[in-house]
Amino acid sequence: MAFPEPGLPPDSRLYAIGDIHGCLPLLKDLLQKIDDECRAANVTARKIFLGDYIDRGLYSRQTIDFLLDYAVREPVAPVFLLGNHEQVMRAILDEEDTEALTDWLRFGGRETMQSYGVPPSAFAKDLPELIAELAAKVPTAHRDFLRNLRLSESAGDYFFCHAGVRPGVTLDAQAEADLVWIRQAFLGHKDWFGKMVVHGHTIGRDVDFHPNRIGIDTGAYATGRLTALALEGNKRWLIQTA
Ligand SMILES: [Mn+2]
How high is the pLDDT of residue 1? Predict the structure, then answer.
């Protein structure tokens, strides 16, 4: 089956940025490359961040601080999408969800808590106390950042989300749990989703180009390679660190 060749409206450039996971130095490096490229071409571009800003890497708090400042400086308001890691942190802070905290500690939450200044001794406390310790250290602006993350974004023939979409469900009716967590039901699907889906969440050795989706999580925290997908008209290309 031949799929439509996706594009953006003419004269608009967009960069989708993959999973950062607390790797602030890589993020700065990548955004510098993007800025240099845009300056050379004399264009302003919109940026869509695909989520998973936090956990695993060492600089989660600093990454959110940086992005808050970046959003203010950018001439075109960037879009920040929700990743499953932010969904979990938000549940811990807003719902004091101890089950979410248990999960979080297994997939990188400890590093994030330490980046907020939670001391190593706090991890010996019981879970509600640990949540209180974290809550006392997370600035309001960060809580608002977590609460305001969007689930998806469309531009031209592209659809952007963190993890993917549920086949058989229209793009505007997708459930949050699928948009931020889905793997095999999405990754293994071969038909057209209605738009070209650009996503992160599932790490590939390199960018995962398919006729119906493009996965750009290149495992920055483990590989040093953070990826942006550039889109302009019918063209697309990659910007990467390392
Ligand atoms: Mn993820």
Answer: 58
Are the beta carbons of 84 and 52 closer than 8 angstroms?
A: yes
Residue 23: name the closest of 225, 238, 229, 235 by CA.
225
Distance in angstroms (rounded) separating the CA atoms of residues 168 and 106: 32
Whole-model pTM: value is: 0.97
Determine the distance separating the centroid of ligand 1 and the alpha carbon of 100, expressed in angstroms.
15
Topology, domain 13-240? Purple Acid Phosphatase; chain A, domain 2 (3.60.21)
The predicted pLDDT at position 209 comes to 96
Q: How far is the CA of 39 from the centre of ligand 1 (A)?
A: 31
Give residue 201 CA to ligand 1 midpoint distance, Å: 4
Query: For residue 97, what are the contacts with CB-CB under 8 A and spacing of at least 6?
Result: 91
Residue 58 alpha carbon to ligand 1 centre in Å: 17
Determine how many CB atoms are found less than 10 A away from the CB of residue 107.
12
Q: Give pLDDT tens digits for 198-223.
A: 999 999 989 999 999 999 999 999 99
Q: What's the gap in Å between 85 CA and the centre of ligand 1? A: 6
Residues 6+ apart with CB under 8 A from 32: none
pLDDT for residue 38: 97
For residue 30, what are the CA distances in angstroms to 46, 173, 229? Answer: 14, 33, 11
